[in-house]
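Bench notes, afternoon.
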Amino acid sequence: MITGAASGSGASAECRGLTGDDLEVCEDASGAGTTIGVALIVALWAAVDIILGFTYVVIRLARRRT
């Protein structure tokens, strides 16, 4: 995740050769894409953690009753 976020910073290959407003829009779009990608990774990680946590609790409760 850190590597992906770090690779998104700076000028991308698609933005080379652009100047002025076009360069600014291209860099902003690249930054937004990086942010969305990192947010998806974090959200997926959190969802899996919650699912694993609930599974752990259910298994502990089931073993405790038998």
